[in-house]
Amino acid sequence: xxxxxxxxxxxxxxxxxxxxxxxxxxxxxxxxxxxxxxxxxxxxxxxxxxxxxxxxxxxxxxxxxxxxxxxxxxxxxxxxxxxxxxxxxxxxxxxxxxxxxxxxxxxxxxxxxxxxxxxxxxx
Length: 123
Known about the structure:
- By secondary structure, the protein is an all-alpha fold.
- The protein contains 4 helices and no strands.
- The protein has helices at about 1-35, 45-80, 95-100, 110-120.
- Helix 1 packs antiparallel against helix 2.
- The longest helix is centred in the middle third of the chain and has 37 residues, at about 45-80.
- The N and C termini lie far apart (about 40 Å).
């Protein structure tokens, strides 16, 4: 069982590194696209379109940054031996869940607990 978990961790590490590289490429391409877009100026409609494009770019970059942070934290947990342990329950996270979401910090039970707490305090 421990050997199978070790194989799952290696597969997850590989997927995390691939996801990180993909996200970094998306960040780079997004910046290049914004930099190479229409120059500033133009009429009011052009300026509005550019402002909307910049706003969309910023929101997208924030999502990518959040995803990169989650991936970096997961890689760190692999390195320090805390990977695969639920932050809520301190139990092992299901291997299928790790393979599906390699950066997850919660088991299914832990996610349900957090969701229930969120609903409780949102009222």
